Amino acid sequence: MNHFFLYTLGIYLLIFIIISLFDALHVKTFTDYAVAGRSQNTFSVCMTLLATVIGASTTIGIADTVYEIGFPGIWWLVFGAIGLVLQSLLISKPVRTTEADTLPDLARILVGRPAELIISLIIVISWIGVVAGQLVAMNSLITFALGRSDKKLFIIVSLIVILYTLIGGQLSVVKTDKLQFIVIALGIIICAVYLYFVKGAPDDISNNIELLNSNYRLPNLLTQFFVIGGVYFLGPDIISRNFMSRNENTAKRSALFAGIGLFVFSIIITLIGMWVRYSVSPEVLGDNKALMYVIGILPKYVALPMIFALLSAILSSTDTCIINASSIFVKDILKKDSVKYIRITVAVIGIIATILAASGRGDIMSLLSGAYSIYTPGVIFPLLIAILAHKKRSINVPVWVAAVITGGLFGIAGTYFTDLLGKLGVPVGLLSYLTLIGMGISLLISLFSIKKQA
User: pLDDT, tens digit, for every residue of 63-85?
Assistant: First the structure.
């Protein structure tokens, strides 16, 4: 299968390059490149939303989580679906009416330049780790498909992803996302059907459908609801799809339909993880990822679609993260509406992330959780308060910025400095709640930033 995989991979990536070259002919303005001309219909936005949120963490990562902790592993995606539905119900329309180009640009419109700058820095720095996490997963998948590690092929594929993103911008990302989502859906569905209807479902699965257990308790539930749900509710990649929507109603419908679609996907991928959990012992699984083991026992006509489903999930999230982080760097930090500058930044961020991934440091879930744990407590509540207050109340900018900084610092402390804080005497029970505490404090400070009506 190695040679057939390589040929198919080459054709697949060539299609993306052709799409990007075609779209490059239609890129006339910064708006065309950065927000796909603000002209995308509900179908396109919904498809690109789903392709964006279904990445390495929500396929490879979720299946591994389910194998380790059981059915409660579903909560990551369920909270993501809830976040999208809440976005549709609460903020999709007011966000789209601002005509913002990026999430920090939205913060500028709502609060001012200081808000734009601080959120830009948080996103650009954190999202390099997110991109690296996706590429780590891609490297693992390529290694598995070939049966050996091949750094040269990994670098070539990474550079092709950077290249087609750089050439066509969001116009290309939207089109490739549609193709990638179709491949994702087909591969995952075929795999689930084969496991449950050909191989057969283990009896233990039906007896272990539980929402909480000894591996996943109420504190985990609360933390993921805010940290993961918050990113899907008001994360830069998800909100970028709002900005490219044709109008407010398109943005609202797209988020709602994507939330429903993500919930369905969460059930399917969780059931695949449960099949592995109750069919494969840890000794047999060894160091393999749960989905990699599944691919290994599938017949070739099912295994290859599954490999490309996972590859598409990774690529569709990677290109979105790269183009959004690059647009934010140029638009909101450099203050340039320049397609040329974004293309240069895409190359720089992509290469940095590739080097980080090639070094083999970290795994997809730890890298993404780390980025989210910094972004969510620092940004979600202050930005939500600013959206709800827009055109109704004015914002005290220094207090609002203090809310972002305080929340972000708690997120950093809870993610990277728990050992140090433990040695300094901070109670162990408190350390696991630092991110939630940061979000709560951030919310309170941002509420105080709303000026009273005269």
Answer: 999 999 999 999 999 999 999 99
